[in-house]
Amino acid sequence: MEKKTAHIKVADLTMAYDDFVLMRDLNFTIFRGDIFIIMGGSGCGKSTLLKTMVGLKEPALGRVVINDTDFWRTSGAERERMMKRFGILYQGGALWSSLTLAENIALPLEQYTDLEKKHIRELVSYKLALVGLSGFEDYYPSEISGGMRKRAGLARAISMDPEILFFDEPSAGLDPVSAKLLDDLILELSRSLGTTIVVVTHELASIFAIGTNSVFLDVDRRTMSAEGDPNMLLKENKDPGVRRFLTRGQGESE
């Protein structure tokens, strides 16, 4: 069996807003190539944890170590360099409404690379093709469906060939068919690009379909109460809160 390599390590992490402690004592490892799920009930701090990992919110205590570099204790310049290796898909896609899909995807390439315009256009078309949107370069976000906007947001997130992809509730607002298509796309990108993927979600279908590793944040205890492959947690974990979440409340009667 191939040995797993740690990509991100979260150690003794506490997240807080002023004096209110949201989560404490978080310790888990995301391995290279994982599709890692951050899961838990509403208000448990899933999105805050994501913000801490991508550089938007500093932790109250603890460390986020990426490729053996302490993300929040390194220099600002080094942290910014590391952030350029991230791709992020926000809930709504976060596309600029006044720009076409091609212009949206080209934006980071224009800002952070010295590529010629011709090469950027070729890359944009390639990234749109990867997410099934070939031929939609000149469409505006308002002219396509919600599922297509999510895929366009994903094309922008992978425009710079990121080392790590972060998703914040990617299935939010999508119908079941569109959500399944997005899950399939995430799996395909994981297989073809080998990218480490971190997903915040509470959608059980997605959790079981794509997750290879996970952490469960317990809103009542304000700490994590499980980690590992979600499908194995469903079979083996006996924690009442974890089972209640993973079985839609049916686990308590087992």
Summarize the model shown.
The chain has one domain: Rossmann fold, CATH 3.40.50. It has helices spanning 46-54, 76-83, 101-112, 117-130, 146-157, 176-193, 204-210, 230-236, 240-246; strands spanning 6-17, 20-31, 35-40, 61-66, 69-70, 86-89, 164-168, 196-200, 213-218, 223-227.
The share of residues in helices is 25-40%
Number of distinct beta strands: 10
Mean pLDDT: 92
Largest sheet: 6 strands, mixed
CATH architecture: 3-Layer(aba) Sandwich
Question: Would you identify the regions where 5 or more consecutive residues have pLDDT less than 50?
Answer: none
The assigned structural class equals: alpha/beta
Task: Note the run of SSEs as H and E.
Answer: EEEHEEHEHHHEHEHEEHH
Q: Class in CATH?
A: Alpha Beta
Could you say how many structural domains there are in total?
Answer: 1
Query: How much of the residues is beta strand, in percent?
Result: 15-25%
What does this structure look like?
This protein is α/β, with parallel strands linked by helices and 254 residues long. The protein has a single domain, classed as Rossmann fold, CATH 3.40.50.300. The protein is 37% helix and 25% strand. The protein has helices at 46-54, 76-83, 101-112, 117-130, 146-157, 176-193, 204-210, 230-236, 240-246, and strands spanning 6-17, 20-31, 35-40, 61-66, 69-70, 86-89, 164-168, 196-200, 213-218, 223-227. The strands form two sheets. Strands 6-7-8-3-9-10 form a six-stranded mixed sheet. A hairpin with a 2-residue loop joins strand 4 and strand 5 (69-70). Helix 3 runs parallel beside helix 5. The longest helix has 18 residues, at 176-193.
